[in-house]
Amino acid sequence: MEKKRIEWLDIAKAISIILVVLGHAGHAYLDIYIGWFRMPLFFFLSGILFKPVLFKNHINWASNKTFRMMLPYFVYGIAIYIIFNIQNLSLLPEHLYNLLYGGSGLQGPYGVFWFITVLLITQLLLGIIANFYKWIQFSIIAVMFIAGHLQVVTEIDWPWNINVVMIAIFYYSLGYYCRNIISKYHDSLSIAFVSAFLAVLAILIDVNGYLDFYLNLRMSSYNHFILDIIIPLLFFMPIIYISNLITRFPIKELLKVIGKFSISNHVSAFTCKYIFQNNIGLQRNDF
After folding, report:
1. Which end of the chain, N or C, is less packed with Cβ atoms under 10 Å?
2. What residue segments make up the domains of the chain, in order of their start?
3. pTM higher than the cut 0.85
4. Domain named Acyltransferase: which ranges (predicted)?
């Protein structure tokens, strides 16, 4: 029997997908301020569902998870190229190489593909880390988060955006460690209101030039590890509270479907947005 899904969590994941699309709509402010939290939110929500796995089961678990996540990665990647280049398949090997390498070099409709590999490696890594004592887990994640901000790390174009895992694992593990707290307070209006107030205040401070903050995980652009902890978190509880409110309305059924198949829908939504926005076939420089 299928385990009962958490409605507000699926809805929150759907909202994060919508925010990703909006953030790439070309509006300067949307791109900047939604960028503050859209991908940290996605990793945070995904972490809530993480289940630890024993060392002895890790290889089988990792193999199954890798297959389930990388299958849509390559199916979508190859399908996009073939559909729009059916008359010219000569560059297919080059595109396959770029898909294999991944990372920030993936451009155009492939621009959103980076998060699949980062999410996969993040999950596999936490699957190992979660076997240690809690203080060791926290220490490893903290060291990785700080090291991930080092210039020597961010300047390299790592395959599969591996360097971003050092940042993403913080948000992902936070969802895992705080899931009981989130479950208890996901419908708290007071917490959501205070958090939203502080989030708006941070935006106003930035608009007026008193805050130098920018966050873009795909491009490895993060300039302050303290603010990278604080600011994205301000947006989490308001989104979660709104998601809980939506469970009372019929539209929840559509959003639950979007959230349930978050990876496929994430890629599909971004790809469709790109195609309709540009109304062009894929070219050589789209990678």
Report:
1. N
2. 7-276
3. yes
4. 7-263
